Amino acid sequence: MKLYTYWRSSAAYRVRIALNLKGLPYQSEYVHLVKDGGEQRSAAYRKINPQQLVPSLETDAGEVLTQSLAMIEYLDECYPDPALLPADPVARAKARSMAQLIACEVHPLNNLRVLQHLGGELGLDKAAQGDWYRHWLAEGFKALEALLAGQDKQFCCGDAPGLADICLVPQVYNARRFELDLTPYPNIRRIDARCRELEAFAAAAPEAQGDAP
Ligand SMILES: N[C@@H](CCC(=O)N[C@@H](CS)C(=O)NCC(=O)O)C(=O)O
After folding, report:
1. Do 54 and 130 fall into the same domain?
2. Helix H segments across the chain?
3. Alpha carbon of 104 to ligand 1 centroid (Å)
4. How many domains in the chain?
5. What does the pLDDT average to over 100-115?
6. CATH number of the domain enclosing 141
7. CA 71–ligand 1 middle distance (angstroms)
């Protein structure tokens, strides 16, 4: 498989974790999101991913998949062991709910192109962009922390890492990068730390990527 990726992309980070948890080898094709106005906007990459976002995943059969959650569920269906979603339908829905809270509610508001629009056309300075970023992140983390409170499992949805953890760890990386105070989120911090002890998460981290500076 081939993963179109960028070291600091949290959506690509999710797919890297999933591939590693499954023990699946893949080739990295680096797409620099900043250089030359962003390689994701090149004509060549637009043919691969018309949304001009990373990641994209090319399967061994040459199919190109976009959207990290769709890729992760594809991997889980084709390579079911270890499972990334619980077997019970209610538990599965709860795991997807936590993953979507991050991937569909927080992350899109804080994406690079959003920040570039805020700083460009809308004229927000760096400090205001940071405030925007932390505001939406805190909104999401407050809700996620409430969902996690009172459960004493090692990971978001049990005692094995899964879809929700795969979304959580890259978002906590972003939170640290944008200096969000994580003190009010003890469960998020605990689960993030536990995940990062695992090799599958460590090998997927931004600083471990071949395109990291
Ligand atoms: N919902 C998409 C989000 C993908 C996405 O936003 N990728 C970011 C990096 S994390 C990107 O390529 N940004 C480029 C840009 O904003 O121009 C997914 O989960 O795959």
Report:
1. no
2. 10-22, 43-48, 68-78, 89-100, 112-119, 126-148, 163-177, 186-196, 199-202
3. 11
4. 2
5. 97
6. 1.20.1050.10
7. 13
- Residue 212 belongs to a domain: no
Whether the per-residue pLDDT at 22 is higher than 90: the answer is: yes
Q: What is the pTM of this model?
A: 0.98
164 lines ligand 1 (CB under 6 A): no
CB burial of residue 125 (10 Å; 0-12, 13-18, 19+): exposed
Nearest ligand 1 atom to the CA of 9 is: 10
Atom of ligand 1 lying closest to residue 13 CA:
10
Q: Is the CB of 11 under 6 A from ligand 1?
A: yes
CA distance 196 to 187: 14
pLDDT band at 94 (very low <50, low <70, confident <90, very high): very high
pLDDT digits (tens, 9 = 90+) for 23-64: 999 999 999 999 999 999 999 999 999 999 999 999 999 999
Same domain, 69 and 97: no
> pLDDT digit string (tens) for 137-168?
999 999 999 999 988 899 999 999 999 999 99
The residue segments making up the domain with residue 100 are 89-200
56 shares a domain with 11 = yes
Strand partners, 3: 28, 57
